[in-house]
Write a structure and sequence with these properties.
single chain, alpha/beta, 6-stranded parallel sheet, two-stranded antiparallel ribbon, 13 helices, 13% strand, HAD_hydro_SerB1
């Protein structure tokens, strides 16, 4: 718990580990994007005020959880691994707790995120990267494809149609993020890099999770390597934890924002987009203290669903 407390206190500061995580993620993203096929055709959507067509030094960076996709990618990935007998019911309940908290409180609590990532690392330790990539493709079809926000998807497509590159930037494993980016026809993905030796996961991270300041460092590293001008780039996120990333681009957007990000965006004149229904937006905006009972109930419901074999 002491380590988690340290993580919470330092989440808005760029540490040496943040820089390492960001640089590792940028390198992994550039390698994976070289293998990415051309974007697939997407549904037509109204053209937004931005981006500028033909600006090759501009790009867009999208957070994943609750910005591009409803819920947390790690939770959906965990459900898929559980279905394939990678771990037991106890670990599934932990994933369900984190997902329920995230959906109700509307914030990425560092303690919950770190707990889930530690569990995920222990689960994949000793498995081959190629094995998890193949399984990730199946899990995307089973649990993620139907949870993409159409509005955010249209924003990403507008950047692609303008001839710009579009990257996911997420604390989810870079392998999972790369699969999602490829399926959406995006350029590539920046994500948390798990150490592997000889194609086998060691159970350790390179640096730290790509969260908070680490995301900003990853975007800076990628922009430098790709010759991008950040003042001409855009970034999209739902979380106040991503203020460091949003602050370094010229066109920041708050998408499905939590309360803190909404307030910050209004104070700084950032554009807002909310693709949730009114009911969902109200639910996600419940303060943490008021939502404790709902969180507990949501976890119980998740376990009950498992017992009915709906996972």
């Amino acid at each position: 718990m002491a380590a988690l407390g340290w993580f919470t206190r330092r989440r808005h500061l760029a540490t040496e580990a943040s820089v390492l995580a960001g640089e590792a993620s940028a390198e992994a993203a550039r390698k994976s994007s070289a293998q990415t096929p051309p974007p697939s055709e997407a549904p037509e959507a109204p053209e937004p005020e931005f981006p500028v067509v033909g600006d090759e030094r501009a790009a867009a960076f999208f957070d994943l959880d609750n910005t591009v996709m409803q819920g947390a990618a790690l939770f959906h990935f965990g459900r898929g691994l559980y279905k394939r007998h990678f771990f037991r019911k106890r670990e599934l309940a932990r994933f369900a707790w984190q997902q329920t908290w995230f959906r109700l409180a509307g914030v990425e609590d560092p303690a919950h995120m770190e707990d889930v990532r530690s569990s995920a690392l222990s689960i994949v330790k000793g498995h081959r990267v190629s094995e998890l990539m193949a399984i990730g493709e199946e899990i995307y079809d089973e649990y993620m494809a139907d949870r993409i926000w159409p509005g955010t998807r249209a924003l990403a497509q507008a950047h692609l149609d303008a001839g710009q590159r579009v990257w996911l930037v997420t604390a989810a494993p870079v392998e999972t993020a790369t699969i999602i980016a490829r399926r959406l026809g995006l350029t590539g993905a920046l994500g948390t890099v798990a150490e592997s030796v000889g194609g086998v996961y060691t159970g350790k991270l390179v640096g730290e999770p790509l969260h908070g300041p680490a995301k900003a460092e990853a975007v800076r590293a990628l922009a430098a390597a790709e010759g991008l001008d950040l003042s001409r780039c855009a970034a999209y996120s739902d979380s106040s934890n991503d203020i460091p990333m949003l602050s370094i681009v010229g066109h920041p957007y708050a998408v499905n924002p939590d309360g803190r990000l909404r307030k910050h965006a209004r104070e700084h004149g950032w554009r807002l987009r909310d693709y949730r229904t009114g009911r969902k937006a109200a639910k996600i905006g419940i303060p943490a203290a008021a939502g404790v009972g709902a969180v507990a109930g949501g976890t119980a419901a998740a376990v009950a669903l498992h017992r009915r074999r709906r996972f």
